[in-house]
Please model this.
Amino acid sequence: MELIEEAPHRFRIDPHGPMRVPGVVFASRKLLNDAEKSLEQVVNVATLPGIVGASYAMPDIHWGYGFPIGGVAATDVADGGVVSPGGVGFDISCGVRLLAADTDQKGLESALTEVMDGLDRAIPRGAGPGGVWHLTGPGQLERILRGGSRYAVGEGHGVERDLVRCEDGGAVADADVDQVSARARERGLGQVGSLGSANHFLEVQRVDEVYDETAAAAFGITVGQVCVMIHCGSRGLGHQICTDHVRLMDRAMTRYGIKVPDRQLACTPVESPEGQRYLGAMAAAANYGRANRQLLSDAARKVFHRAAGIRLSLVYDVSHNLAKIETHPVAGTRRTLCVHRKGATRAFPPGHPDLPDDLREVGQPVLIPGTMGTASYVLVGVAGGDAFSSTCHGAGRVLSRHRAARAVGGRELRARLESAGIAVRPRSLRGLAEETPEAYKDVSEVVAASEGARLCRTVARLVPLGVVKG
DNA sequence: ATGTTC
Model:
């Protein structure tokens, strides 16, 4: 694969074969070690009907289903542009929420063990069923799919301000619950308010360093402050929706004369019935994901308040696995695009009309979950950023789960983290070992490359005090 | 990511 370094942290793959646009990869040479397979996926995505600009990849690019994780692709809706479930991923609406406590680390110190034990009891996690909410019936699930965080807050599990600080005000309006299969509903019924497994987590963190005082002040965070970060998605419901609609599109694709180099890129035009059905189901999963994070926030707030009298206010909630209809300039004119972000975070610049009033001048908060025992980051969107206002989403795996678990024992890893002052509440030691920090790229390098590529600016670095894992 | 292989 020929990569042309056209600017610092920016590589181009010139169009060849059926590519409609170039590939553009934002990264350092080091981060692109062993990236050959995922770069082929960048090339494959560049062949999609209606794609505009480029097939983009963020510095945390790695191999995914059809599209690379860390991929951004926008298609022109009025020009036959397609939507592809593989461009969103299986964990629809997976995302991150950051809450800021009304105390610094000293104010938590004596209560940390009690808080962690409380979270251990209150936060459902791991594979399979279990959630903080026990639904009273299918009607309630439909209200979640339509109302997202807005419904959870309306039921008393949060405050109005939570919605202001949540992407899309806590819910998207275009959810179509009829496109959510019986099987997807069944799987979603028992998992409302749960973390799931793998790299999903709830962490108690401390703001270790602030790089941009103005943005940090607007976001409501300061050095030494305690925060809570929640990383989770739409569980089995989103997974089932992706499975269902990939199958539907795979069958329908030929009717639209679409040929893709990899079946996992199954897609149909945004304006086709199949495209609309997928987007309606995806929106329902997006709302489920937001409600999920809202209910986990509510559970965490109760623990913090009961154990330590600490209150938590929402900094922001943003997804890194979604397709959204947005307007962006393309070759000088504003176009309506379907922007796929898969393992990539929306990063609106200062002045964007969709930002809350009190954040509009500084830009959108971008939340980057790191790995256990390392760090997480808060970034901010910048003007003039490429890739349709998108940036990275996390560290990116380098070791398979199997290899990670062979590299370190769960007991040994827990001891290592505890001796580094990080309280750990894992559900399984095997699951903990699979998430050992060595299994991931250095999140600091990913963030530095993203800023170097002018996709965002670094605002703050957060370090873990306690980890709740699936 | 995922009732970790329909």
Summary: Residues 65, 89-92, 94, 127-129, 187, 196-200, 233-236, 238-240, 242-243, 321, 401 of chain A lie near DNA strand B (CB under 10 Å from a C1').
